[in-house]
Task: structure prediction
Amino acid sequence: MLFTWFILAGFILLFTPRNLTNKFQFVFARVFHLPLSLGRNISLSTRTRHSVTNVVSRREYGRLENHLVNVMEQLYQEHQIVEVLSGLRNRFALEGANLVRADVITASIGAGRGELIINRGENDGLSKGQFALGDNSIIGTIFDVSPRTAQVKLFTDPASKIPVKIGRLNTERIMHGNGNDSAKIQLLSTKYKVRVGDKVVARKKPGFLDAPMIIGTVARCRRDDENPSLWDITVKPVCDIERLNNVSVIVMNPSRTY
Result:
């Protein structure tokens, strides 16, 4: 019965003139204005919140993605450092040593000087006399140190004096820097056979170096002008010190982990 009445009402509205139906719509809108506006506001508020939520979510996602990229890059750099230091520790001379990797802040090479300033210091376990490495070779020693920085005196500096031996010669001499990217070994008798290209190694020093390590090569060997019975030997570094961006400092038998 209810269905029949609904059908009849539908036919009546279908054939009713348009001006009457328009008036009916206006009356309906005025009568039900409050509930209709309330529903519309709720719908708009829901869509707005959803849109804002999407914007915030995209912004947060971008922030987290950038953070992930930064972390991955840092991990990659740390992984490279670990690989380098692990390779160095496999050398017998550095067994049991703590290797402190440092970046070069400034370099003063040539013109009678040979120094590096690095970004590690006492807070990292550095102290005077420790050896600094570049490309797996000794380049100098720690000359001065502060809590956060240190000065590396290269073996080419005129103030540097390091005990060394040449090749397989069973004799030790002091190598002096001469300030022009090289060093000199003097007071070695010409009875010893020395050739250009012979390896020069720093002698072990208890508490600083447990075994000899390479420091340079013989670049020139000739008789001394003042005493022809002695060699005048020039030693060059085995790495390009001027191009070094970082070095490693040997901390032998560290009392704690830095």
The longest helix spans residues 33-89. Residues 72 and 78 are 10 Å apart (CA to CA).
